[in-house]
Amino acid sequence: MDNLQSAPIIIGKLLNIGGMLQRHGNRILQPFGLNQQQFSIFFEIAKAGKVKQKDMVNRLLLEKAHVSKVVKKLHGMGLITITASDEDKRSAWLAPTQEGKQILNKCRGIFKEWNKQWSKAVDDIELNSILENLSHLQAVFEDKI
Amino acid sequence: MDNLQSAPIIIGKLLNIGGMLQRHGNRILQPFGLNQQQFSIFFEIAKAGKVKQKDMVNRLLLEKAHVSKVVKKLHGMGLITITASDEDKRSAWLAPTQEGKQILNKCRGIFKEWNKQWSKAVDDIELNSILENLSHLQAVFEDKI
DNA sequence: CTAAGTAAGTATCCATGGAAACTATTTTTT
DNA sequence: AAAAAATAGTTTCCATGGATACTTACTTAG
Question: Which one of A14, A127, A131 has the shortest CB-CB distance to B134?
């Protein structure tokens, strides 16, 4: 099969898989009152320890309006703190709370379990090949989109 | 890297790429008054030639309520016909109109051009390996989700 | 040093899509 | 053949997220 034939099929499959994962993530996170996107923003905040909204926008390539709303929600849920920044009064620092970290760990555990499940069906070599392929694709799309 | 380390990264990348593609698809299709999901339903109807809503639900793994709404929209836009079915009065046959087929071809052309663009950055061998990987993953997730 | 331009976030509008309850029909059970 | 269960689609509710315009603060040009 040549490039022009496989390219659209690849796109179709990526969209399909992406949708499945997103819906699955939403379902898993439902008990925590979060969805997949909200969690990924929360996760990034926790990973960074201390960030501003614009960092999230850059890292996750999301709309700043969207990030703003999610940040407000996370704050309302007591998962993050928002501390005014001295250098730039337009923005504030975001950091996970103690409670936030606990919830994060619970989620991490659930995801880990699920990852263990599905990755059993794929051997190590293939998994690494997938990772390489996806990293390349990610770079290509970030560039071409 | 072992399975348990790469698995979550793979999921993260799939979600990220899926999101990018969806947003890109939405942007491309905007002039036609459709979004990526609506187009994919329309595309499936056209590909099949004559189907019922439940076929779309099964093939695309979407919510039937959602499909119902999109079908109504496509019909309202004059892209498909809805013909009552004799065997089962609960359901109706869906088929693309002449105009629908024309619009579909236009979109196909645009997507083809874009596919040509990005796939230049990936050689044939890698593209085939990606296709294999994704097919496997798709099957795994359909099964494990 | 002020005016114009840019940047970080917010508010608002609106189509979208998931969930659940509902209607109408068909199939299965007894 | 009547009752129960299953199926196809629809309706309604509501959180979501993209787009745009706006506010406030910062930066740079003249």
Answer: A14
